[in-house]
Amino acid sequence: xxxxxxxxxxxxxxxxxxxxxxxxxxxxxxxxxxxxxxxxxxxxxxxxxxxxxxxxxxxxxxxxxxxxxxxxxxxxxxxxxxxxxxxxxxxxxxxxxxxxxxxxxxxxxxxxxxxxxxxxxxxxxxxxxxxxxxxxxxxxxxxxxxxxxxxxxxxxxxxxxxxxxxxxxxxxxxxxxxxxxxxxxxxxxxxxxxxxxxxxxxxxxxxxxxxxxxxxxxxxxxxxxxxxxxxxxxxxxxxxxxxxxxxxxxxxxxxxxxxxxxxxxxxxxxxxxxxxxxxxxxxxxxxxxxxxxxxxxxxxxxxxxxxxxxxxxxxxxxxxxxxxxxxxxxxxxxxxxxxxxxxxxxxxxxxxxxxxxxxxxxxxxxxxxxxx
Length: 372
What we know:
By secondary structure, the chain is α/β, with parallel strands linked by helices. It has helices at 17-28, 49-54, 67-71, 74-83, 94-107, 124-133, 145-155, 177-186, 208-221, 236-245, 261-267, 282-289, 323-332, 334-351, 354-366; strands spanning 4-10, 34-40, 58-61, 88-92, 111-115, 139-142, 161-163, 195-199, 226-230, 252-256, 270-273, 293-297, 313-315. A 7-stranded parallel beta sheet has the order 3-2-1-4-5-6-7, sandwiched between helices. The protein has a 6-stranded parallel beta sheet with strand order 10-9-8-11-12-13, sandwiched between helices.
């Protein structure tokens, strides 16, 4: 049987949510039916290259250090598609999407685009380019109903728009109490201490400053609590200073970018997210799969995952300060904390399996409905 060759096009292969999903879905795809290629542009954001190669991906960097240079990579992309007999181009995030649409007529191949964010959150130029070029592709995939709604309301597309919810490898992201004890000991955290955690890219939208303020409020009445924020990004240095200003240097660990995210989730009891906006954050699903109790703002697709006071605590984006009340409630009532940990795991296993996501993607790749 001839394999279907799919080329994923993405700006970088750093450790963001969209990028990580490429690795996780690759692990579960049918390698007998598909061959996956990956092209990225920012050469210094290459942390996931080895993971993709290890799982059978074919990876190429076309160096381009800004968005305009990405568009000028069109000829190289055309040559790659033709030389490697690519069947489908699947783009992720706007600038890869613009490039894919630009070369579509030149290569006469179907171009799919996954939108990971709401249109309202993009720079004006990005929004205009997206709206102008959107119908030059065959299909748009939204990562949540909230993102799909944003596409329809802002772009009014003529091409089909489908929602495929992000999924998580529930076998890989899971709790392990013995491992948790070992990891906490290595970090100098008491075995019985409640750990509030987050894993994210340090961007403005994540509002890590608010996260630290929420933690500081909890710490006032719970001096044994500890915090961990794993990740790096544009606001990292600023947040290190914020931690110092709040007097949290000895109680909130900020180790920077780490590759073993599954181990870090195992140390968390509560996953706190204070974002201003999101698509459907993979870290939230990974935390739930790892049996973390969830306390979060209702940013973007988050409200499609968390049922309020069933499998997590969720508040309006503007009501972020009161997330400290929810955390205090969980700390004060261990039986409720355990209930929410179990409920989070159950919700992801039943509704957000990576295999469900992969099966939907493979169905699209194999469909004749989205041709040239």
